[in-house]
Amino acid sequence: MPALPIRRRWFSWCLAGAMGLSTGAQAVVTSADVSTNDDRVMKQALDAARDRRWDDIDQAAIQDHVLAGYVEYHRLRARLSSASAAEVNDFIVRHGDSPLADWMRGAAQTRFGQLGRFDDLLAISDGEPSATIRQCYYYTALLDRDPAEAAAGGEKLWHVGASQPEACDTLFSTLKQRGVLTDEDTWERMMLAWENGQDGLVTYLQRGLDDAWQRAIDSFDGVRGNYAGVTRVPLDLGPDGEASGALIAAAMHGLTRADTEASLEAWRKIAPHVSLSEERRHRIEHDLAFYSMVRDVDNNQGWVDSTLPRLADADLIELRIRNAVTEGNWPNVARWSEALPPDVRAEAHWQYWLGRASEAMGDEAKARQAYQLAAQDRSFFGFAAADRLGQPYQLQMANTQVSTLQQELTGMLPVVKRTEALMRIGEEGLARSEWYTAAARDTPDQAEALADYAIRQGWYGMAIQTTIAAKQWDALPWRFPSAYRDSFIKWGEVNQVDPYLLMGIARRESAFNPQATSPVGARGLMQLMPGTADHVARNLGISAPSTSELFEPQVNIRLGSTYIHSMLERYRGNRIAATAAYNAGPQRVDRWLASAPREFDRFVESIPFRETRDYVQAVLAYRVIFESLAKQGDTQGVAMLSQAERQGNYDPTLIARN
C-alpha cells in the first residue's frame, strides 16, 4: 500500500516539536545525549521531590533534563498555599502538552478552595472541574461572581442520593439562605438517599425539615418498612402538596426490586391518579419493564409488551428480543427487531437476529438482506452472518502505513522524549499518562503517528489505548498487534490450545498490558487471579508464582493457557463454553447449559451476565482478527467457529464427565 501523504498540519506540528516550539517544550535531547548517569540523577531527584527532600536534589544536574518539569511540579505543589495564580498559570502554559498541566490545575483548585482563595481559583480554572470536591469549590467561588451558574452547579451537586464532601457545605448553606435550595429539594434528596440505601443521610436530611413536613415524614415512615404501602400515600403531601411524587417514585423503586409482580399491581392502581413528572413516570415504568423481563414475570408480560412501544427505550427492546431469542419465538424476534430505533436496528447484532427470525419464518429474501447488512460488520454477529451466507469475513481495515519521515519527526516530539525517559527510569505509570494525554488531545493524524511509534517500540498496550483515545477503530494492526506472539504460539502448542484464542483472551483481558491489575486482583496479560494461578501451578508440579512473577508474560501465558486448556477439556473442545467459563467460572456455565437453547448463537445470546455475553463475543471475534492479520488481512479460509461449535448442542452433554 502507498505511504500516507504528509498532511500540512501534521508536518507543522512535528516540525514545531522537533524545533522545541511546542507549548511547554524544553530543548529536545536525543536518546544518545541522555546518559545513564543523567537518568539516575533524575530518578533520585524525582524520588526526593515526592518526599519533599529538597536539599537532596541537584537542581543544576537536572535542569536540562527532559523530565525536569516533574520535579518543578512537586516543588510548586508543595508551596501552593503561598503560590500566586500567575505562577500556577505559568506552569500550566509551559507544560500544556503534558498531564502535569491538568494535575497542577486540579491540585491548585483544591488548595485555593481550602484556603478560600476564590479569585485565584477562578483565575487558574478552565471551566467546571471534573472531581466533586473541586466542583464544590468552583461553584462556591462563583456564588458572588455568577450567581446563576453557581445555583445551577449547586443544585446538580445537591440532587444526589449520597453524602457530598465538606467542601460543598458553604455552597449548600449559601444556596439555602438565598432560597435556591428549598425544603422541597431537601425532601427530594432524602428520597434519593432512601433509594440508594443511605440511611444515615436520610436521618440527617430529615432533621432539616420543620413541622410543616411532619405529615409527609409520617407517610414516609409508613412505607419505609412496607413498600406496598405506596398505594396509600396521600397525593397532597408537603406544605405545597408537591411532595408525594418523590415519595411514590422512591417507594416504587424499592417495591419493583422486592416484588416486581406486586409492584405492577400497585402501579396500575395509582398511576392514573398521581401527579408525576414525565421523567419520574418514565423511570418507574422503565424499572417495571426491565425487572419484569429479567425475572420472567409471566403475569407482567402483557403490560410489558403494551408499554415498550410507548417507552421506546432501546435497552428494553433489546432485552425483549433476547428473551424472544431464548424462547425461540421467532415472530416476536422479528416484531421487536422492527421496533428498535433505526440506528440501533441497523447494527449487525440485531440485523443478524432479524435474519434468523426471517429465515425461521420462511422469508428467505428478507433473511438474506438482513444477513448481508450484518456481514459488513467486524464483530461476532457480523462474522456469524457471513457464515450463514458462506462469505469471507469483512475486516474493514484502514491503511496504517506511516512514512519514514513521519516516523522520524514523531521520535523528536517532546511527549515522546518524556515518555521514553520515564520508561528508562522505571516510571511506566507516568509514561502511560504522558502518552494517553497526547493521544486524547491530538488530531487523528498525530494520533496515528503516536500509535505507529508505540507499536515499533513494543509498547503494545499503549498503542491499543492510543487507538481507543483517538477512536481509530479500523486501525487493526495497531489495535490488534502481534504482541508476545512467540510466547502464545509456544504455550499454545504445549497445551494444545489455539494461539489465536489465547491472543484474543489476552487482548480482551488486559489490552496486552503485562502490568494490568483488575479491581479484584487479577494480574497480568491473561488476568489470572492468584488463587487460580496457584492451583494451576500445583497441577503442573511447579512452585506457585509470586505476585511479581504473574506480571511476567512467559509465566502468565503459560499458566493462562494451561487453565483455558482445562476448560476446553471440560467442554469437549468447545471454545464458546470454555471462553465463557474463563470469564464467569465453570460452575455457572454448567448451570447455563442445563437450561440454555441448544444452538450456539442462541446460547450466547441467552448468557444472563452481560459482561460474559460481551466477553465471549469479543474474544471469538478477536481471534478471527488475529488469524486474519497473520495472513496479511486475508480472511479466506478463516473460520470463527468449527463445524462442531456451529452445529453441536449446547446442553449438559457438552460437559465431559470424568
Structure description:
With 658 residues, this protein is an all-alpha fold. The protein is built from 38 helices and no strands. Helix 14 runs parallel beside helix 16 and helix 26 runs parallel beside helix 28. The radius of gyration is 30 Å and the shape is flat. The N terminus is likely disordered.
What descriptive keywords fit this protein?
38 helices, single chain, disordered N terminus, 0% strand, flat, mainly alpha, 658 residues
Question: What is the topology?
Answer:
Blueprint: H1 8-18, H2 36-50, H3 59-62, H4 68-78, H5 85-94, H6 99-115, H7 118-124, H8 132-141, H9 147-158, H10 169-177, H11 183-195, H12 199-207, H13 214-224, H14 244-258, H15 260-270, H16 278-294, H17 301-311, H18 314-327, H19 330-339, H20 342-345, H21 348-360, H22 364-374, H23 380-389, H24 404-411, H25 414-424, H26 428-441, H27 444-457, H28 460-469, H29 476-479, H30 485-495, H31 499-510, H32 530-540, H33 553-570, H34 575-584, H35 586-595, H36 600-606, H37 610-630, H38 643-647
Quickly describe the structure:
The protein has 38 helices and no strands. It is mainly alpha-helical and 658 residues long.
Q: Helix coverage percent of residues?
A: 55-70%
Distance between the termini: 53 Å
Class by helix and strand content? mainly alpha
Number of DSSP strands? 0
Main sheet characteristics: none
Q: Which blocks of ≥5 consecutive residues have pLDDT under 50?
A: 1-34
- The portion of residues forming beta strands comes to under 5%
Work out the helix count. 38
What integer value in Å does the Rg equal?
30 Å
How would you sum up the global shape?
Answer: flat
Q: Mean pLDDT, nearest integer?
A: 93
